[in-house]
Write a structure and sequence with these properties.
126 residues; alpha+beta; 60s Ribosomal Protein L30, Chain: A; six-stranded mixed sheet
């Protein structure tokens, strides 16, 4: 059975999808972009600030499911410019313990929703 996860501390879905779905003990999150959850403003000042907002949105979704970054077993990072990888990776990495970090792939894509520079999705388990 699946349970829909929703929190107003992360951006509301803008289409036919959920912020996350819990199936058994496994959480599947939708991709998060740098939308500020209270104002709806897109935060793209610089790649570090944008990535931090994405991670804070993801943190809120994880917390709504009773989890945190230690529960994450897989992450996918979509970026529009691989030249931003090191700066994105630095912010992303600050949310994890390097010794227990999840599996991950980083993929450069032609375009992301709302023309953002980074989108991140995760799978977590209790």
């Amino acid at each position: 059975m699946k349970k829909i996860i929703f929190t107003d501390k992360a951006p509301a879905p803008i289409g036919p999808y959920s912020q996350a779905v819990l199936s058994g003990n496994t959480l599947y999150t939708s991709g998060q972009i740098a939308l500020h959850p209270e104002t709806g403003v897109l935060i793209t000042t610089d790649i570090e600030t944008e990535t931090k907002q994405v991670m804070e949105n993801m943190k809120a979704v994880l917390e709504a499911a009773g989890m945190d970054f230690e529960n994450v077993i897989k992450a996918t990072i979509f970026i529009s410019n691989m030249d931003d990888f090191a700066r994105i990776n630095s912010i992303y990495g600050s949310y994890f313990n390097e010794k227990t970090a999840p599996a991950r792939e980083t993929v450069q894509v032609a375009r992301l929703p709302k023309s953002v520079n980074v989108e991140i999705s995760m799978i977590a388990a209790k």
